[in-house]
Amino acid sequence: MKLKSPDLIGQGFFYVPSNGYFHIMFRTPIGVKENEKKIDLADQTLCIGSCFADMVSHKLKDHKFKVTANPFGIIFNPRSIFKLLAAAIEKHSPAPDTYVKSQDVFYNYDLHSDFADLDKKVLKHKVEKVFQEVTTDLSAAKWLILTFGTAVIYQRKDNGETVANCHKIPSDHFTKKLLTLAEIRLEFSQLMAQLKSFNPGINIIITVSPVRHIKEGLELNAASKSLLRVACHDLAEHFPQVTYFPGYEIMMDDLRDYRFYERDMIHPSAEAEDYIWEVFSQTYFSSRVRGFIETWQKIKKSLSHKPFQPQSKNYQNFLKKLLAQLHAIADTVNVDVEIEEVTQRLKTIDCQ
User: Fold this and answer.
1) Structure-model confidence comparison of residues 151 and 311, the more confident one
2) Mean pLDDT along residues 226-233
3) For the residues 6-29, what does the mean pLDDT come to?
4) pLDDT surpassing 90 at residue 125
5) Domain of 4, in residue numbers
6) pLDDT-derived band of residue 14, with 50, 70 and 90 as boundaries?
7) Separation between Cα atoms, residue 183 and residue 231, nearest integer Å
8) Where are the beta strands (DSSP E) in the chain?
9) pLDDT value of position 10
10) For the segment 167-208, what is each residue's pLDDT rounded down to a tens digit?
11) What is the pLDDT of residue 256?
């Protein structure tokens, strides 16, 4: 193959003597497969899992969906995720022996280190409150989004229980192991049996986080991600309520370039997150909901507008138009805060 014309080659063209120039797309875009069931703006959604679940839930919240975003903090392994959901269904709080003191601060082995306090009683109150809230949210949820980050787990040597977070307790207190496909399938099946009674109409989206767990080493990370991907395929095949979203494949195969990563070369960049969100939108949102998102993005841009002359007539008219746009969507989503903000801006101008 002979390359010619740098201008054309820079645009992705190659030259073949027998055929002339032809274009090659330097990506392998994933085909969008629209899900039969769609997430509506009015649907309650609960997101739990790794930091990738954080990204999805924040995007949903930012676009006015009703979402509970990682209420237990970032949770990486499937076993801990299933355990937390089962406890919420059963209306149980974490056992007393799950509270641990590390460097003068109290934590809970089942939760992220966001749950911490110098006073154990205060921490227990916070934890019990969040479990009560999740029980309520899960009972009303139409969608449950679970993101698995790693199949590597740490088990306490004193009782064999798996922890969601070691909270900087010395490593000799734990045994590290890799979950098996059989364990993930069994524990998910047990959770599904509980969900069928607790919230039979719930739909579940599962995905594998594309964020590498390099602290475990790249070899073990690869084994872990492979296991999680096979598990997701298995669960989506066997449970009608479950669908798989290919966030992992989008990052690893479609956007397989370090320009789509943050400076740590581990987490997806803002551009990558936007692209993944767009594929998610095409997969799980109707054309009506996508139309609303487009409208809302324009309104959000107007809300962040900072005028050079706040007292000008043009800016007053701009605010009045913006207020009308907000009132027009008030029956669809809650924009009380935004309406109050714009109203106060207008009052401030009138008083000056």
Assistant:
1) 151
2) 98
3) 50
4) yes
5) 1-27
6) very low
7) 10
8) 13-16, 20-23, 44-49, 66-69, 99-102, 105-108, 143-148, 152-156, 162-163, 174-178, 203-208, 242-244
9) 40
10) 999 999 999 999 999 999 999 999 999 999 999 999 999 999
11) 86
Structural domains of the chain, count? 3
* Mean pLDDT across 292-318: 92
230 and 115 fall within a common domain: yes
pTM of the model: 0.89
- E strand or H helix at 10, and its extent? helix 6-10
Based on the domain organization, do 14 and 128 belong to the same domain?
A: no
Task: Report which residue type is found at 1.
Answer: M
* Torsion-angle region of 212 (φ positive above 0: left; ψ -120 to 50: alpha; else: beta): beta
For range 58-75, the mean pLDDT = 96
Characterize 205-221 residue by residue with b for buried, 16 or more Cβ atoms within 10 angstroms of its Cβ, and e for exposed: bbbbbbbbbeebeeebb
Paired strand residues for 162:
155
DSSP letter string, 193-229: HHHHHH-TT-EEEEEE-----GGG-HHHHHHHHHHHH
Strand residue runs (E) in 217-310: 242-244
Instruction: Report residue 154: phi and psi, to 5°.
Output: -120, 125
Measured in whole angstroms, the distance separating CA 290 from the mean position of its chain's CA atoms is 18
- If asked whether residues 207 and 252 sit together in one domain, one would say yes
- The token duo for 317 is 């008219």
Does 166 reside within a domain? yes
Instruction: Let me know whether 20 and 160 are in one domain.
Output: no
Tokens representing 112 are: 């992220």
- Domain check: are 10 and 73 in the same one? no
Is 299 exposed, middle or buried, given 0-12, 13-18 or 19+ CB atoms closer than 10 A? middle
For 204, half-sphere exposure in the C-beta direction (CA atoms, 13 angstrom radius) is 26
Q: Are 166 and 112 in contact (CB under 8 A)?
A: no
CB atoms within 10 A of CB 301: 9
List C-alpha distances in Å: 314 to 202, 307, 319, 327, 342. 48, 10, 9, 20, 15
Q: 254-262: which pairs have CB atoms within 8 A and are 24 or more residues apart? A: 254/27, 254/28, 254/29, 254/30, 255/27, 256/28
User: Residues 43-53: pLDDT tens digits?
Assistant: 999 999 998 88
- DSSP letter for 253, please: I
For residue 102, being part of any structural domain is answered with yes
| Sign of CA pseudo-dihedral 240, 191, 58, 130 | positive
